[in-house]
Specification:
The chain is mainly β. The protein has one domain: Carboxypeptidase-like, regulatory domain (Immunoglobulin-like). The protein contains one helix and ten strands, in the order αββββββββββ. The strands form two sheets. Strands 1, 2, 5, 9 and 10 form a five-stranded mixed β-sheet that branches. Strands 3, 4, 6, 7 and 8 form a five-stranded antiparallel β-sheet that branches.
Length: about 140
């Protein structure tokens, strides 16, 4: 009899934990959007990533499509990494196997500095929801 009472109490506690949930505080991320260009030309595709310089808030990222992005980012100072790409043709899925099919051949169009946290010159302060933050990258990787 004692076993079934103990089991009932443990089951109730377990159910309560499931209802309350686990983990840290609720997210305070805000939606932002903007454009990403290189020397004024929209980046066809790629990724943009927002990082907190001190690592205290989660990173956030979004795809870049036709020079635009939309992301949910925790407010605060951010370092931004960008990997811009474009389609430059087609290539075999399996090199040297002619009937393996083809896929789009993708080329990186942004300077490597923009895709390294310790090298990127890109920064921004995210403060409010629906904020528009635009980036015009330089081919030499040294400007914003």
């Amino acid at each position: 009899m004692k076993f079934s009472s103990l089991f009932s109490v443990l089951a109730a506690l377990g159910s309560t934990a499931l209802l309350i949930g686990c983990g840290g505080p609720a997210s305070t991320a805000v939606p932002i959007s903007g454009t990403v260009t290189v020397e004024g030309q929209p980046i066809e595709g790629g990724l943009i990533t927002f990082l907190s310089p001190d690592g205290q808030t989660p990173a956030a990222g979004a795809p870049i499509q036709n020079g635009t992005y939309q992301a949910e980012v925790e407010p605060g100072q951010k370092k931004i990494m960008v990997l811009g790409t474009k389609v430059v043709g087609e290539e075999l899925v399996l090199k040297g196997v002619p009937d393996s099919g083809t896929r789009e051949k993708i080329e990186t169009i942004t300077h490597p500095n923009y895709n390294a946290k310790h090298l990127t010159p890109l920064t921004a302060t995210v403060s409010t929801a629906n904020e528009e933050i635009n980036f015009d990258l330089k081919k030499n990787g040294k400007g914003k």
